[in-house]
Design goal:
With 90 residues, the chain is an alpha+beta fold. The chain contains 4 helices and 4 strands. The radius of gyration is 12 Å and the shape is globular. The protein starts with a strand and ends with a strand.
């Protein structure tokens, strides 16, 4: 069963955030990420909505709880607590 990790958060500066997001590609691959989409709100380019596809809920959860992800979010300028959820296909 595949799983999609959904993240929504506000960032201080999208361009600075994107640099760190791209640097975290090896971490996503380490957890088996098979696809990703990054979207921003049309009225606020710092309101970011991201999906990451994984082969299983366990892989998605492992990525969500990886200390490297938390460190990356802090370094990237995520403002406040991100909303992170996992959904499965049916």
């Amino acid at each position: 069963m595949s799983a999609t990790l959904v993240v929504r958060h506000t960032v201080n500066d999208y361009a600075a955030w994107r640099v760190v997001y791209d640097e975290l590609e090896p971490l996503r691959q380490q957890h088996g990420c098979t696809g990703k989409i990054v979207l921003v709100a049309p009225d606020n380019g710092n309101d970011v909505f991201i999906t990451h596809d994984f082969p299983s809920v366990e892989a998605a959860d492992s990525f969500a709880h990886d200390p490297g992800l938390r460190e990356g979010m802090e370094r990237a300028g995520v403002a406040g607590a991100p909303r992170i959820e996992i959904f499965t296909s049916v």
